[in-house]
Amino acid sequence: MNILETLLLAVRSLLRSKMRSFLTALGIIIGVGAVIAMVAIGDGARANVQKVFDSMGTNLLILLPGSTNSGGARGGFGTQPSITWDDLAAIRTQLPSVRAAAPEMRTSAQVFSEDQNWTTSVTGTTPDFFTVRVYSIAQGRLLNEADVESGAKVAVVGQTVVEKLYGAGFNPVGQVIRIKKMPFTIVGMTARKGQSPMGQDYDDSIFVPATSFQRQLQSQSLGKYITGMIYVQADASAGTAKAQQDLTTLLRERHRIADDGQNDFDIRDLSELANNRQQSTETLSLLLASIAAVSLVVGGIGIMNIMLVSVTERTREIGVRVAVGARPRDILLQFLIEALTLSLLGGLLGAGVGMGVARVLADQFQWPLLVRPDVILVALGFSALIGVGFGLYPARKASRLDPIDALRYE
Fold first, then answer.
1. How far is CA 225 from CA 19, 80, 99, in A?
2. Each residue's pLDDT tens digit, 285-318
3. Which of 22, 130, 337, 350 is 20 to 30 A away from residue 266, measured at CA?
4. Which residues contact 229 (CB under 8 A, 6 or more apart)?
């Protein structure tokens, strides 16, 4: 009997007990489906995290001014101004490892336009901010150096602000809004950007020149100091580590900090945060895939159990086949192919289930659907190995039956 005839015989044998075959393969179906779904979900989550961090800007460092430490009361970095405008100019001009730097001074304010009002975030900054934070323009223009130098009362608004004040689809360029009772003319509207990793709406913001912000919107003028934080974008060829080192050296020199003195600023690397998130996601995906792999092994044990039952039930059939000329190798091959067919069919069904589950979850969480062909092939290959591995013992047992005893079996 050749391979094709043996395969057809195995399929017919499986089809004789469809429900039992399905239940036997259920462990493989669940295992393969879980592996494919978990890996796809992990890849989708990782891509989503990367997309969110890319929207914050690449090669990005955050420079925070000093911390308060007075009368036993201590505050975190950012609570005490220590970075000046001259520091910012030095960072921009003296560090080749830095591509761009921009301050972010923020406040919350109620803004008015005609009879509409909305409470939103107002940011005082410079034109480089839109480069380092990856903002693009949808209508009008972004802020420029002339706006900053002259302290112009102009504003660039996000689309959420436009929708709340004027309605969706409105072109706000040329409109006047009042921020803390100060009139600002809208010169541009940013393209939609979405949400930050913390869920903040990037489009619910108004951007004004840093000089205008300090003069018009801050209750207390801090003169030469920059409040808030500074975004520093490292040059891609240098990397964030080099830029961080150069930045630290420059500021320590400018602030005349002794060798054993503590920094009056703090630098945080957003790339490390993104990497940590990625590693956490990968670890979780590996854990879930490992759990799913256990299901495959359990499915293999189920196949071996049913195949042993099948050998017992078909003992007389085996005896007849051997009596008419079948060799032990033919019997072994028949049962081995039955086990392999069962596990492969279970693997194919599991692949379909896994892709379906991944699709549903991707739609639910708004993640990209990433089902990798190599993962499907590996899962199917593993299910085939499970079938062969756990089907070998029952097949050997069947092939070693004594034909006389098998024919006498009732």
1. 76, 10, 22
2. 777 777 777 877 888 888 888 888 888 888 888 8
3. 130
4. 62, 63, 64, 65, 78, 103, 104
Please report, as a single letter, which amino acid is at residue 346.
G
**Residue given tokens 């709340």 in the structure block:** 164
Report the relative pairing of strands 182-190 and 116-125 from DSSP bridges: unpaired
Taking phi over 0 as left and psi of -120 to 50 as alpha, with beta for the rest, 23 belongs to alpha
Burial class (CB in 10 A: 0-12, 13-18, 19+), 132: buried
Say how many C-beta atoms besides its own lie within 10 A of residue 38's C-beta.
25
Q: How do residues 113-154 score in pLDDT, each as one tens digit?
A: 888 899 999 999 999 999 888 899 999 999 999 999 998 999
In the block, residue with structure tokens 């993962």? 375
* Vertex 335 angle, CA 295 and 344, to 5°: 40
* Reported pTM: 0.64
Nearest alpha carbon to residue 89 among 78, 100, 79, 80: 100
| DSSP code for 84 | B
Spatial contact of 194 and 247, defined as CB atoms under 8 Å apart: no
Instruction: Tell me what the mean pLDDT of segment 318-342 comes to.
Output: 83
